[in-house]
Amino acid sequence: MTLNVLLVADSDSQLLACQALTRFGDERDVCFTVNAIPREGTPASVLQALERSGPLWRFTLRQLLADRRLDGFAAIGVYLTGSKLAEFRSTYHLSREQQRRPRRPLFCGFNGVVLERFEEAIAWRLGYDLICLNGPRDQARLELLLRHTPFQGQRTVLTGLGRQRPQEPGAERPRRMVFAEQVVMPAALAERRRLVRILARLARRSPEWELLIKPRVAPHESTFHAVDTHISHTLQESLGSPPANLQLSYAPLPELLSRSKLISTVSSTALFDALDLGCRAVVMDDFGLRHDLGTPFFAGSGLLRSLARAEDLDSLAAAAADPDPAWLYWVGYHPAFSPANLLEALVQLQAHPLTPLQLSQPGYVVNAADLSTNQLRRGAEIAIQSGDLEEATRLLEMAQLQRPDNRNIGRRLAALRLRPALLRRLALLVTPRFRL
Amino acid sequence: MRLGLICDGEPGLGACRRLGRALVQEGAAVTLMSTAPPECLPTAAEEDSEDALGWLPLEPLAAATSDLVQGLDALGVFLEGNAVTAFRAAHRQASALRGQSPCLLFTGPVRPLCGDALMADLLPRLGYDLIALQGDAQRQELEWLLRSCGRSAQAHTLLGLWCLATEPIGSATTPDPVLLVLDETQVPPSPFANGMLYQRLRSIALQTPSWQVRLQPDGPLPADPADWPETSLLWHGLQDRQRPANLQLGEGDDLTLALMQASACLGIGSSWLITAMVWGKPTVVLGDFGIRTEFNGPFFFGSGCLARLADCLPLERLRERPAVNADWLAARGWAIADGPARLLRGLAELRP
Fold first, then answer.
1. Measured between alpha carbons, how far is A205 from B150 in angstroms, rounded to an integer?
2. What share of chain A is helix, strand, coil (3-state, %, to 5)?
3. Rounded distance, CA A2 to CA B128, Å?
4. Which of A279, A17, A49 is closest to A160 using CA atoms?
5. CA distance A15 to A31
6. CA dist B31 to A57, B4, B52, B312, Å?
7. What stretches of B65-220 adopt beta strand conformation (E)?
8. Residue A231 confidence (pLDDT)
9. Angle CA(B278)–CA(B283)–CA(B288) in degrees, nearest 5?
10. What is the CA radius of gyration of chain B?
11. Eight-state DSSP code of residue A390
12. pTM for the complete prediction?
C-alpha cells in the first residue's frame, strides 16, 4: 500500500532536505507531497526541482493546518527552524484534539551536517514522534543530552547524509573544481577576502583548469543566515579582475558536481553530495581547525588540504584521497543510514502508534513545550478570552523576557495590569492582539 | 612531584588556587604562576596551606620560556583559547633552543562546559601530554572530538569539579530567607532584556517583603559602579531610585558568604549554580529563555533544576524545589572524589 507523506518546509536549505527525502519515494512505495511555505527570496530553482519530483503545495502554516486533506497523509515531516518546529507540533496536536480528528505521526530532522547548537536544536525537536539524525555521532550526542532525564524515551532514526542518486566517478570529467561557498563560514569579511584570493592564486597556478565558485544563494535570494556581502561583491572588491578561469556559477550544484573532477569547501554538506555524485572532495584547511568554521567536523575525514600551499589543481586532484571509511560511518554517510530507515519506522508507527512524550516535567524545561514567543502570545490571548487574566499576564511576562523590544507585547501586558477593570477592558480592546 | 600551574586571571586563577592546595595535600610541591597580585592569592582563612603553595608573578608566555620551569616535573596550563596553543609552541621552541626536553604539559577546561563550548575549548588543548577533564560527560565528548578529528589517542584523566568551590561550608543564617540571584554580566546579552528581568525580580521583591532578594555578581565587577555593564542586573538595580528595601545589591567579594547565607539560589547559566546544587541549596536554573547555547542552557538541561520564574512564586515554593538530578551531577564530575590523586598518578605514568 502506498504511504502518503507530507513534508513541510520554508527556507531553501530545509526544502533541499525535503527534496533529498523525496528521492526515496521512487524506490519505495511512498508518495511525497511537499508544502513549501511561501517565503520571500526562496530560490526558484529549488521550487522548480520540487515541482518536478511530485506534488508541491504553497500554503501558509495557518492554511495548511486548517486543510482537511492533512488527514489523508500517513505521516507529516516538518523541516522548519526551531521555534516554528515547536509551534507546528503544538498547534497541530491542539487542532487535532479540538476537532477530534486523527493525529498522524510527526517527524523532523536536520538539513545536512549539524556543525553547532546541536543540543539546542534537539531541545526544540523533543516531542516529535521521530527525530531523524544523520548518524552515530548525532545519536551519541542526543543520548548524552537526554540521559538520566525524563526524555530519554525520545525516538530517533538514522537517515544518513546521502542526498543524491549515487553516480560512478567518471574518468572523462573536465578539469574543473567547484568551490561550495557558505555564507558565514568564514564570516569575517577579511577572511572571506583571503579565501577569494587563495582561490584566485590557485586558479592562476592552474591555467588548464576551470575553478567555479558556487555561491550558496544568488544575490537576490535568501537563505537561513543573513548575507551581508554577497560573494560576488567580495570577489569583485578583492580581485578587481579575477583570472579568466575563476568564475561564479549559479547552476544547480548536483549538475556542477556531476561534471567536475573536484569539489572543495570549508565545511559544507555539499561535500557529501559530491561523494554521491562521484566527485573527489577536498576540505580547505587554510583557516585551521576552528569551531566557528565547522572544520573540526571534517578533521577526521582524511580530506583536509591547504589550497594556498597546493602546487596547482593537478597536484591537488592527484593527491585527493578517499575519505576515511570509519569517519564516514561515524558522521552518517553509510548505506546503513538512509531515509529507508525513516520509512520503515513510519510503517511501524502506523501499526503501533506511540504514546506521546510527556514534555511537561518538574525540574525540566524543553524549548519544544510552549516556549516560542508566538506560542506564549497565542496562549495569552486564549487566556484573555477565557477570563484568566493572571495566566495571560504570566505568559506575556515570559514572552517579554524573550522579546523585550516587542512593543505590542509591552502594550498588551500594560493593558492587563490596568485598574480598574473597565479601563483594563478598554485597553485590551484597543491594543493589538496577537495573530499568527 | 614538582608542579607549576599557569593561569591568567579568572576563572583560571580561582580554579588553580583550589587545585594547587589539593595537590599540595597529596604531597606535591606546587607553584602558581600568575600575574595576579598577592591579594588575590589565598585568603586569611586559607593560610594553612599557603606555606606550601608557592607563587611566581609570571605572565604565561614569560613562564613558557623561563628557565624556572625547566626544573619542574610538569606544568599545568590553565589558559583559554589561542593562549593554550601559544604557550605550548613557545615552551617547545624555548626548550629546543636550550637543547632540553620540554616539560610535561597538562591542561583542561577551567569552567564547566559541554557541547559546542566544550569542543571549542578542547580543540587547542589536543596534543598536550595530558588533558584533565571534569567528569564522564566531558570524557565522552572528548572521545567524540578525537573520533571526528581522526586522532587515535589523547591521554586524559578525570579531575572532578575542581574548578568550582565545592568544599563543605559552614552554615550562616539570616533573619529573613534570602533568594540569591546570580548575576552574569553578559547574560542575557541585551541591556533591555536585563532591564525586563530586573523589573520581574523587583516585582517579586515587592510582593514578598518577608524575603530578601539579593542580586549577586557571579564574578568580579569594576570597582567603580559607573563602569558596571548595562547588561548586568546590578546596573539596573543601581539606576533604580526606588529600589525596594528587600532587593539588595551584592558585591563580588561576598559571593561565597552570600551563597552560604542563601535560602535558595537562582541563575541563568552561571557555574556557581553547580556550587549551590552541591551545597544542597534549593536551586533554580531560570528556564524562561529556553535552552539556548549562549546562555549555557545545554549544560543545565539535564540538571532537574530548571523552572520558569512564574512557577517559583510565591517564593516559599522554592523550599520545595525538586532535588538536583544526582546522575546528571555525577556525570558532570561530582562522582570523582579523588581527582588530584588521579592527576598525580596520570602524570607519574607519563614521566619519561
1. 31
2. 45, 15, 40
3. 56
4. A17
5. 16
6. 69, 5, 8, 45
7. 74-77, 104-107, 130-133, 156-158, 178-183, 212-217
8. 84
9. 140
10. 21
11. H
12. 0.88
Cell of B214: 539579593
Give chain A's radius of gyration (CA, Å).
Answer: 24
Q: Which domains does chain B have, with CATH numbers?
A: 2-160+336-350 (3.40.50.2000), 178-332 (3.40.50.2000)
Closest CA to B196 of B321, B309, B316: B309
C-alpha to C-alpha distances, A1 to A29, A280, A347, B320, nearest whole angstrom: 7, 40, 10, 54
Please list every residue in chain A whose beta carbon sits closer than 8 Å to the beta carbon of residue B322. Answer: 362-363
Residues of B in contact with A405 (CB under 8 A): 190, 192
Residue found by looking up cell 507529516 in the block = A76
Residues on chain A touching B321 (C-beta within 8 angstroms): 363
φ/ψ of residue A121, rounded to 5: -65, -40
Confidence of residue A223 (pLDDT cuts 50, 70, 90): low
Stated as kind and residue range, the H or E segment containing A35 is strand A30-36
Which grid cell is A97?
Answer: 484534539
DSSP annotation of A334 reads S
Asked if the model's pLDDT at residue A226 lies above 80, the reply is: no
Report pLDDT digits (tens) over A13-44: 899 889 889 888 777 789 999 999 998 878 88
Q: How many residues does chain B have?
A: 352
Q: Chain A residues contacting B, CB < 8 Å? A: 116-120, 123, 137, 140-141, 144-149, 289-292, 296-297, 299-302, 324, 327, 330-331, 362-367, 371, 394, 397-398, 400-402, 404-405
Cell of B201: 525580580
pLDDT at position B38, please? Answer: 46
Cβ separation of A141 and B301 shorter than 8 Å?
Answer: no
Q: How far apart are the first and last CA of chain B?
A: 13
Residue by residue, DSSP assigns A205-257 as: H-TTSEEEEE-SS-TT---SS--SS-HHHHHHHHHSS--TTEEE--S-HHHHH
Cis ω for the linkage preceding B217 (within 30 of 0) = no
Domains within chain A, CATH numbers bracketed: 3-161+334-351 (3.40.50.11380), 176-330 (3.40.50.2000), 373-430 (no CATH)
Backbone angles phi, psi at A280, to 5 degrees: -65, 145
Q: Name residues 22-81 of chain B within 8 A of A (Cβ).
A: none
pLDDT above 90 for A353: no
